[in-house]
Give the backbone structure.
Amino acid sequence: MAGKRGRLRVYLGAAPGVGKTFSMLGEAHRRAERGTDIVVGFVETHGRPHTAELLEGLEVIPRRTLSHRGAQFEEMDLDAVLARRPSVALVDEMAHTNVPGSRNAKRWQDIEELLAAGIDVITTVNVQHLESVNDVVEKITGVPQRETVPDAVVRAADQIELEDMTAEALRRRLAHGNVYPSEKVDAALSNYFRAGNLTALRELALLWTADRVDEALQLYREQHDITSTWEARERVVVALTGGPEGETLIRRAARVATRASGGDLLAVHVARSDGLAGASQGALARQRQLVESLGGSYHQVLGDDVPEALLSFARAENATQLVLGESRRSILSRALSRGTAGEVIRQSGDIDVHVVTHHHTGLVPTLPRVRGSLSRLRRLQGFGLAAVLLPLMTAVLVPAGPQLNLVSDMLLFLLATVVVAIVGGLAPAMVTAVLGSLLLNYFFTPPLHTLTIRDTNNSLALLVFIVVGILVSSVVDMAARRTREASRAAAEARTLANLAGSVLGGEEALTSMLERVRETFALTSATVLQKEDGDWMALAHAGPPCARPGEAETDVPAGDGLVLALKGRILEAEDQRLVGAFAAQVGVVVDRIRLSAAAAEAAPLAAANQMRTALLAAVGHDLRTPLAAAKAAVSSLLMVGEGMLSAEDRRELLTAADESLDRLAKLVDNLLDMSRLQAGALTVTVQPTFVDELVARSLDDLGDDALPVRADVPDDLPPVLADPGLLERVVVNLLSNALRYSPFDATPHVTASRLDERVEIRVVDRGPGIPSSEWEAVFRPFQRLGDTDNTTGVGLGLALARGLTEAMGGTLEPEETPGGGLTMVVSLPVGDDQTMGAPGLRERQAAVAPGARS
């Protein structure tokens, strides 16, 4: 009867060939040397000699042979391993599908039986076989993975070790024949083992392993009741209230998380348990969408004590940083209590707290207005306070008259005037000072209960009281004015700074600038109008456009023949300066657009001039060479008398003339095609084209004298949308170029494969290659990079190949050939379902002879 469950160790590979089985066998030898009873249940070497050598010295359980559809297959003998009952069993390829007739359908189910029997298992699996990433891998590589293993099975392993290798190192390992036989290397490098595929698979493996490690860390913290923060991975929590500052906080927190090597972003909103929270649910919904669009997660927790709830959530999530917004409470409220930010900072412990400032009284929807005093609400509050303080103070001081003199009474009324001035500004304070002086005169200045003042000193004191009250009120009002002016100046500076970046843009920047004008001044539309031949034309607009300046409430000149028309409301005088700055910037952007358009028109002319100069040079040398050779051969035939040349000599001269004229015809054809491409007059007829047939024709076009070319084009590839004649020219040019630079003992190789909705044709040579910094130079016309033979062409082959490919809607890009050389990759779209279903098309595909042509 089985005892405790065995332990599972998994070697997770980023891709085939990274060394999972090699590492597993190495671990087996180390355990065997320590005396562990270990056997090989099943190991697949794939013919790799270094892996096979590691099997020596280990006990191998013989495999079980099964028959299926007339063929013999070998599988792990599960019964034999269970009967042997070792301490540890090696079982390779966890995702393998067993041959029908086996006890279990999948090998991972065999492993489960071994673990249940108390046997420790060491196994291997590649990331592409994990169920959760199976569809992602297919999108990346274009290869469906039919053998998968549930993630839960792998995550349940006691140990997971990642076998990783850079894409370049793995491709070199393939090129050296350490993974697949030499005849399969080129096809593997051109298909599954592309550098981009391997990099993506590597990132998938790293992310999956990181998540697994993070789960293990969280489980350990829970099991050991650890509440303190462990900064193993940055986790940034942003607190949201549903207020207008939320988006600013989210973006700030996202930047913090991004700078922390891709840390996690979590947003949390603390709702009151009584359901009376004042947060805007619409704003919270928009902020949640923003968080999720930035790759974060949104959470909502209940709690009447907001600081405690925030910190509890942050510690539960092992957060390292907490982002809060600056308080929107009044000065008085902040003076009476520390507030959420203060409490969080006090109790945060080892969690870093960021308090982010935010400005929501700035430019949206309108700029702050300077009207000479405090706001209307503040003035009303001042009048209200005066209406309460003056009667209250009079009622309190009248009974205390015998104990206080007039000076004390004046000082107390002056204090009331200062308080009203601080709250309400100049007007309420002046009213308070005047009414206060009247109350002092009537109730506290002899003779009492009359407005008559007997003593001159008392008259002077009351006058000074009024003057001091007015002066204090003026100081408070001036401070408020300066604060408003400073706020507006800062807002204008921020706006102008933002505009400075827009000057470098084009039409999109102009539209964005007009949208900013519309939002800044709370308008319904902003339009740039240009006058041409007496009529107005709208160049760009934000909101409903204006047809002419007369339709707008405000129009500002923006340059030569330009007007910025603003509609929605009449702007005040204080806004005109900033609107003028906007208009000036609009004029600069329009001028840049005009200059860009003029430069774009001049570019083809400059290219044509360059082409004309190069063409003249080519005509003067490259075209002249074959023409001179043909001329010399024909002249020799004419000058020598009849019967003076042998038949062999005549044939040699005629052959030389024929070859020279053929070469001249090809050069002229290339020049004509290049000129058509430059002029945009090339006729392209796109239709479904089968790559295997086209490659076969291209090989025939190379002629019998060309070196052999190895071709590996599957016959089940879908047709591509291309012009058959032009695509054949492209492949012939690429093959000719590859033959020119390939050494005699390393023939070029052409292959094709499907990647998503495109088919890639690769022409591979093993020549000296070209540095990546000079890849683009080889596609310039009349360039022969590193070509010392000036008699073979005018340097149009690759330039023409790229031009023809792009004219058909495809791309032509170079790649480095692993082991040395250059690979040219032609990528073309696959025919859509409607095209592929054309009559007779599928019959043609079925009729194509299988196998590669060479």
